């Protein structure tokens, strides 16, 4: 088997990478030592948050995702049809509260810094916060509403991305552990699994918390 790109990891990041690469016309193979969406993507809450990130690269990425997910969710639904489970994308918003005087000003300052970076932020009175979430601790000293916060079902979203990727020609090889690379000098020419060798010149490591371990197998240092 040959592929322009081999993606190692069939979680939501690997699935998204494979789909995006295939939609540019590249041939892609996804390899995972387990089943798709069976590791980190099966254990997350599916939160798509801007509320918990300070200005910087991580917030920039979260903002990009916040703008992209509504269109992606609609595109996947249109492509896969009503017979495929709903990924349950919901831009429900989030509320962050402080319940001490010591915590109130840092929360307001954090939110103001986020607002300056482009995050949608609304400072709430205690009554407004309780109207949004009646089960909050009523001893509210500061509250901030983040309407861009969203949530989805991560396993279904991963499977939807992989289903879309397969329609673009991506091959998904489950239960195949990567055991090394094939090289021609410094040039990558293949990825070896326990079952076969896949000819390729490019590798994406998308193995979540195991990415450092996978990179070490490939001869690279990735401090994860």
From TrEMBL:
<dbReference type="InterPro" id="IPR006076">
    <property type="entry name" value="FAD-dep_OxRdtase"/>
</dbReference>
<dbReference type="GO" id="GO:0016491">
    <property type="term" value="F:oxidoreductase activity"/>
</dbReference>
<dbReference type="Pfam" id="PF01266">
    <property type="entry name" value="DAO"/>
</dbReference>
<dbReference type="GO" id="GO:0005737">
    <property type="term" value="C:cytoplasm"/>
</dbReference>
<protein>
    <submittedName>
        <fullName>FAD-binding oxidoreductase</fullName>
    </submittedName>
</protein>
<keyword id="KW-0560">Oxidoreductase</keyword>
<dbReference type="InterPro" id="IPR036188">
    <property type="entry name" value="FAD/NAD-bd_sf"/>
</dbReference>
<feature type="domain" description="FAD dependent oxidoreductase">
    <location>
        <begin position="4"/>
        <end position="222"/>
    </location>
</feature>
